[in-house]
Amino acid sequence: GINAEYGVVLKRCCQHSLSKLKMANTEAAAAPRFVIPVIHDNPAGWGPSGPADPISIHPYSPFSKSDKIGKAADWSANQTGYFQQRNQGKYQPFGGANPAFAFTQQDEDDFQLVDNRPIIKPKPFRRPFQKNQNRYFQQQQPQQQQQGNKGGKQYQQQQANKKKQSKWAPNRGFNPNYRQGFEHKMKRDWSAEVKPDWTKKETIDLSVLSSSKVSFQVGEPEDIKLCGTLEYFDKNYDSITTKTEKPLERIERTCYKVTTTDDPVLRQLVMEGAGNVFATDAILSLLMACPRSVYSWDIIVQKVGTKLFFDKRDNSQFDYLTVNETALEPPLEEKDSINTPQALSQEATFINQNFSQQVLIKDGKTKYEFPNPNPFSSGEEVVSVGYKYRRWKLTEDIVLIARCEVDAVLKKDGKDEFVLIKALNEYDPKATGVDWRQKLDVQRAAVLATETKNNSNKLARWTAQAVLAGAEQIKLGYVSRVHPKDPYTHVILGTQSYRPKELATQINLNLNNMWGILKALIDLFRSKPEGKYILMKDPTKASIYVYEVPADSFDEGEADDESKKKDDENEDAEETA
Q1: How far apart are CA 299 and CA 301, in angstroms?
Q2: The pTM is what?
Q3: 3-state secondary structure of 258
Q4: Is 98 a residue whose pLDDT tops 90?
């Protein structure tokens, strides 16, 4: 028995030894073997001693660092056809030397991209007011049901009215009449009705007149005749602030606005042959600043022989000032409104006439008298005004004579300086976004910048009048309503002085261009045959037209009809105000 057990143990030991031997042989066979490479020695020099492997079997192509020479996968190729066309030629070898490196995109029909990300559905867009509107409906529907048929009709009427209004108005701050306002602005009236017997002769683009190529430098004028009496400016008004405001007073004085051919002094100068072009400073300033105008206006031009006469049309709106004419949102023609363009124009003219007389020293003693009396006064009390009849020699053939006006005299350094007095008016701070009572004392430059933007044409005309009259200063007053809804009561919030050339620089008014425009218009009418013409601004375009009109146009009969029409419009505006 012992021998049998010994034999079993011995057999197991032999089997274990054999298995270990087999494992050792297997590991020895799998171990890496190092093969000594063949070294070609070249004793004669550098490089290989024998022929090398042919390089033609190795593909080669030049490349650039910025080239996209291949890609592993294109995960953005959701739209196969689109991206194939988009990426065509995208992965090409640099220079195209060897096509072996060109990438060919292959479409595999059996390949599908698995995206395990959750799909986020876009939320439907809802306008902010819909939620509130639905809540309103939910609250109102039970009430309408309780009220019966009458309430249902009222509800339907309300919904019908809402559909007529703009959907965006209630919650986005838009005016329901926003688009309607643009229609009003596009429907500005012409200053005069174009008659069938008028013949259009010229169309002038205002952008051409405002270019730098239209320029003319004029020499110093000559004063031919001085008429009228002036009062001195009261310097106490220079110290007015918004906290020490003064009420605007009504001054009962007569103010004359006489056109060119009705001026007896100009008639005398025509008879004497003093010049060949005659006008007033108000007419000349309108022509000089015409590229800035928006509303329609008209000027009558008569050519008699070699002489030109520039006149304003009787009973026109020429002498009325505009308000916010060049603003982005000018006043609109709205029914039962006190802020229509015509009502604001009358208000601004009233303010200017009274302000220019209130700021003077009216003691009856300190006055500045010109050598000749006022040519239009017949004994009544007239406004403080001085007329300067001045002559400019534009060329050898063109001699301009104009009646220019100054409003007052100011003592400065012992010398008398002529002053032109004008007033800017505020009718509603919401219209401009700048409240004068808050900004005028601390940010006066910002107030003037806003007025320059909204009343560019009016300020340019005032500056041109000051330059024509030779005034040393322009006094600008800031007048505002006591309450935005009261167009009859005003207060003076402050004044400011400017030199005409300095103000021209601030409002970007080129004086040479101003004279160039006038010279171009004079040359245009000098080239026309004798007759009567009317120069009219288009209310919807930046253009002015020259019409030839019959010689009897704008006579007394037609003027009376126009006067009656304008009086009716003024009465309607006053009733509305």
Answers
A1: 6
A2: 0.67
A3: coil
A4: no
